[in-house]
Structure formats: structure tokens, C-alpha cells
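Saturday, quiet lab. Running sequence design on the C-alpha cells for the scaffold JK sent over.
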């Protein structure tokens, strides 16, 4: 069964560690990762499938107002780095699905489960003030047979070209490198390269060839658009993730739809 958003607490039967001078003097919570730790090498502390985080303090609130971190896009990384209790854990190693879940949990730990946001109706264009209960979010149920322990590498045959590829789920470091590469390519060409750049990082081999040159040649010149679509659908289908949607109803036209929770300015700055 999946966990309601992924904040959990040790059961009463678990043995408590004796307090020492080095024991943290702040409250902590343990969150369940959507991946359940299955895709991390067993030597990685993330492979246990949980993440212990401390509540935000005034130190983290200082980070929230750091303009340098906001401008260079590392604010969320620094926040997580500060609140994760096990300092051997590297933010770069986090799968993006686990990174996103940790950010939602961090928001709850900091400011509670109620999130006031603005959502624009897709039918009439009305801006709606909505109150979202973050405590109802839950991790997607997983078919554990699809995830061999300690491996982030999956096989897939493209249905049209019949090319056999392998792919992975992206990590926080992958996203950083992708964004950096896209920005560099913008200086050369105004044409969008986001789709192909992401696929260059997602695909890990083509017919057994895992060299970067082969993968990029395949993505740039051989990958059919209908195969690209089927690959993205397959990845979405088996991706371990936090279901971050809510039931939206427009106050003007009563249009209803499952919407992604918007990550607006009030998400981490509720005041």
C-alpha cells in the first residue's frame, strides 16, 4: 500500500537510540520516498527508502531570502541539504521523483499542510483562490517486480523501429546538467533543444551501445517521433512518484479537473 504523503514516524516498538551530546536538539520527521529506495545502489543510504529531515529553523529561513541562491536555481538544493539529517547523503544522487516528494514534505514540516494558491481555470480563465490540503498526497503504488534492487536501468523496445534501448530515471544532477546544456545551446541556436537534450540523458544505450556519441546520434537523427512519444508514455507509466494532483473546481463556471499542484511563490513563502 502507498503511504499518505510521505511523512511517517517510527513505530512504538522500534528501539530508541540513547541521547548523547551529539543528538540533534531539533525535532525530525522521516519521509517515505516514492522510489522506496529500490533504484539506489545498496551502498547508498537512500536505498533504505526513507529520508530523515529536521524541521526548518531560522537558519533555513535565511536561505529562503538568499537572492544568489534564488537566481542561480540552487535554493531548493541548499534547503534540502540543510534539513537532511544524514550528511553523507548527496542531493545530486536523489532521483527527481524523490527530490520533488522531499520538497513537498519540507513545505509541510515548515508551514503545515494547508497551501493557499492561485489556479487559473482552463475553461473560462477565471483566477481561483484555492486551499490545498497537502496531507492527502500519496506515493504511487509500485509493481515491485519492475524494479530490480539497486538498479536504475530499464529495457524497452521501441514499438515502431523495433530498436532496443535502455533508459533511466533522472537524478537531480542530471536535471542540473540538462538545464546547463540547454542554456549553452541557446547561445548557438534559438531553436528549442529541451526534448532531445532530456532524451540524451534518459536513454542509456541503443542496441547495446552505451557510448554518448551513439546515443546522441540516435536521438538527433534516428528516433521517430512516435517512438519518442511511446517511450515517454512508458516512463510515465512505471515511474515511481508522488501523486501531486488535486481536484480543482472553478468558482465561476464550475469546471472540474485534476490539476497539478502549482509551485507558486506562496509555496515556500506563504506570507
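Result came back. Writing it out in full:
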Amino acid at each position: 500500500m502507498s503511504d499518505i504523503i510521505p511523512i511517517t514516524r517510527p513505530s512504538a516498538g522500534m528501539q530508541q537510540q540513547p541521547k548523547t551530546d551529539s543528538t540533534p536538539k531539533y525535532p525530525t520527521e522521516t519521509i517515505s520516498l516514492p522510489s522506496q529506495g529500490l533504484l539506489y545502489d545498496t551502498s547508498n543510504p537512500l536505498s533504505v527508502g526513507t529520508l530523515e529531515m529536521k524541521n526548518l529553523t531560522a537558519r533555513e529561513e535565511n536561505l529562503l531570502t538568499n537572492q544568489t541562491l534564488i537566481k542561480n536555481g540552487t535554493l531548493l538544493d541548499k534547503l534540502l541539504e540543510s534539513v537532511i539529517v544524514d550528511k553523507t547523503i548527496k542531493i545530486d544522487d536523489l532521483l527527481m521523483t524523490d527530490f520533488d516528494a522531499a520538497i513537498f514534505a519540507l513545505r509541510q514540516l515548515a508551514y503545515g499542510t494547508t497551501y493557499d494558491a492561485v489556479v487559473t481555470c482552463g475553461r473560462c480563465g477565471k483566477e481561483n483562490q484555492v486551499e490545498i490540503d497537502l496531507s492527502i498526497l500519496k506515493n504511487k503504488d509500485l509493481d515491485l517486480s519492475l524494479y530490480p534492487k539497486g538498479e536504475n536501468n530499464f529495457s524497452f523496445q521501441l514499438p515502431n523501429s523495433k530498436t532496443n534501448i535502455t533508459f533511466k530515471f533522472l537524478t537531480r544532477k542530471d536535471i542540473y546538467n540538462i538545464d546547463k546544456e540547454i542554456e549553452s545551446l541557446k547561445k548557438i541556436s534559438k531553436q528549442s533543444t529541451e526534448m532531445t537534450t532530456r532524451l540524451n540523458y534518459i536513454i542509456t544505450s541503443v542496441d547495446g551501445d552505451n557510448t554518448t556519441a551513439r546515443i546522441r546520434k540516435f536521438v538527433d537523427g534516428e528516433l521517430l517521433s512516435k517512438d519518442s512519444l511511446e517511450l515517454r508514455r512508458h516512463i510515465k507509466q512505471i515511474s515511481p512518484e508522488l501523486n501531486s494532483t488535486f481536484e480543482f473546481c472553478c468558482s465561476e463556471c464550475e469546471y472540474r479537473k485534476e490539476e497539478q499542484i502549482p509551485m507558486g511563490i506562496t509555496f515556500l513563502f506563504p506570507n
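Notes for JK: The helical segments are 58-64, 67-72, 75-83, 96-111, 172-186, 194-202, 212-221, 225-238. The CA atoms of residues 19 and 65 lie 34 Å apart. Ask whether to fix the surface positions before the next round.
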